[in-house]
Structures are given as structure tokens and as C-alpha cells.
Amino acid sequence: MAASPPLAPRLAGLRTPRFWLLSAAALCFAVGIADPALTIERTVGTYQLVFDITQSMNTQDMGSTDARVSRLEFARTLATGTLDRLPCGAHVGVSVFVERKTQPLLMPVEVCAHRAALEDSISHIDWRMAWAADSHLYYGTYSALNDIRTLAPGAALVFFTDGHQAPALHTGRTPAWDGTPGDIPGVLIGLGGSTPEPVPKLGEKGRIDGYWTAEDTAGFASAGAPTLSVADMERLGGDLRNAPQRAAGPDADHLSRRRDDVLDDLARLTGLGTATARSPEQIAALLRALPGGRLTDTRFSLRVPLTLAGLCALLASLAPRPARRTTRWRLPARLSFPFHFRSS
After folding, report:
1. In this predicted structure, what is the pLDDT of residue 67?
2. Cα–Cα distance for residue pair 193/257, rounded to 1 Å
């Protein structure tokens, strides 16, 4: 019967780098299955995202010059990307704005647990959801603030809009805000270019059927304009009821651009901040900088880091060993010296 090899050499063979790498990989995978986590205390916020879905938001002047998209589509992309950059524990809701009011679609929910529901709600926001064609942005902003005050106290307002008023406000008739400026935190995110662009008229299938003209917009009275009675119309004479309500003004109301002046005026009245839409990273940073929020314990899972560490250890164990090179030094058989020694 052949004798078994000594135990010491076998144990020495187990103590190779490959053995330790495989052991580390197995340990990482085993611990990762248990899904350990760290609990981190941090401040998280609650945000109500409001999307302007009036017709000017269909203007295609966002994105790169060779791939223009509408302002509404750009806002949806920004908002979806922002969800991935908010910490777990933050809450997000979704609303739309048309005419004078905002309509909540989803009240604030936790961003990680309800990520799919939030993305689905945002991706389905469409101009066809509008119940009117007007865009009284001052009233819409006040409506959004009132929704937060009554339905989601403690939330911050994030309003994606181009600032376009349609019909234009009558001079000196800017609606007042009945709240305290700064009472509700938030930011108005401006979309659109600085160059006036025609506003498209979209058909039922979303194709552009034409563009709004100066004559079209002149048919609507300025918001806040004094209303004439039938008796006043008869006294003034003419068919005033069917005549254009105003002349096409120098502002070219049928064209649309990002109205920073309107957004700044709204910010002055309400205490909200303003920003021009750039990227999801920018929006997420703006949201994190808003005042308010609450302290909460956030669970940080270690499963992904452990899995990555185990995978790296496993791949390292499969790397081929470097070949050992041994160098043997040999002296020549006969040494010759340039010196000759002579005995005396």
C-alpha cells in the first residue's frame, strides 16, 4: 500500500494567493446574500413636481441643434433623471398645470420604493391631458402652492415651465399672491430658448398641423382686462363680441421663448427660486439645496459593494501565475588575468 503524501506539503499548497482570493470571493458572496446594510441619518426632502402642459411647451427648441425636442419632453427627461439622483427616503409627487389650476396626479411617495410608479406617471404626461388652452401662469403657480399647503404640508414646489402667459396679462393687472413670500420653498425651472419660436398646433396623433399666428392670439382678450357688458358694447357700436379682442402687440404673443422676466416676477411675489433647466444633476442639486426637509434613517445596502468585491477577487484568482525565472551564476572553467606573476 502506497504511503500518502506528507500533510505539511499539502497544507503549504493551500496557502497560495489563489486559495486566499477564492476564499475572499466566497466570503463576499455569502455575506452579500444576507444583504447587510448600514443605517445613515441624513436630511431628505419632499417635492411636488409640476409640469406645464400648455401648448407653448410643445415648442421644439430644447436639446442639441441636430436633435431638437419639445420643452415638455425635455422636462420629463430631466425629472426622470433626477429621481435616480435623490437619496432613498426622499418623497416625490407629480402634478400638471393648465389654464389657472394645477391637478395632482400622484401625491408624494418614497422615491426608491415607488421608483417605477413615479417614472410611469412622468413618462405619460402629455399635452392631450389639458382641459383648456389658456396659460395663466400666475394663477397656476398660486394653485400649486395652495395644493402643497392643503394636501402636502412640508413639501417644496418644483415647477417646470417656460413662463409663457397666454393670453398676455393686461397691463397693471398682475394677480397678487395671498400667502407669505418664502412660506413654501420651491424653484421655478425655466425651459425654452431665448429666441422666440412659433408655437405648433398639434393634431390628435401628435403631428404638427400648423402654427399659431398673430391673428389667432389677437382673438383672445388679455388676462385681467376689464369686461364690457352688452350695454357697453352696444353704446360703443360695432360687432365687438366677434371682433378681435386686442391688436397683435409688439411682444408677438404667437411666438414663444423662455420668459425669465415672468419667472423672476413670480419669484418676487412668492419667494420661490428660479433656474434655467440644464441637466438632472443640476436639478437634483437644486432640490437638495432647498430649505426644509426632515431627518430620517436611510438604509444603505452593502450587497452591491460586496458582490463587486467578490467578483474582483474571483477574477484575480483566475489570472495565470507569472512564470518563475531562476538565474544560476556559473564561473568560467578557466580565468585569465592580464597580469603575470613571476616568482623571485
Report:
1. 83
2. 6
Q: What is the pTM of this model?
A: 0.70
What residue type is assigned to position 243 of the chain?
A
* Spatial CA neighbour of 144 closest among 99, 110, 84, 114: 99
Alpha-carbon span 67 to 61, nearest angstrom: 9
Identify which of 268, 272, 273, 226 has the alpha carbon closest to the alpha carbon of residue 246: 226
Of 101, 54, 57, nearest to 78 by C-alpha is: 57
51 closest CA partner among 125, 160, 191, 157: 160
Q: Residue 35: left if φ>0, alpha if ψ -120 to 50, beta else—which one?
A: left
- Label residue 296 by pLDDT band (50, 70, 90): low
Count Cβ atoms below 10 Å from residue 80 Cβ, excluding itself: 15
d(CA 56, CA 199): 6
> Tens digit of pLDDT for each residue in 155-195?
999 999 999 988 877 777 788 898 899 999 999 999 999 99
pLDDT in tens, 329-338: 565 555 555 5
* Helix 115-123 / helix 71-83 crossing angle, nearest 10 deg: 180
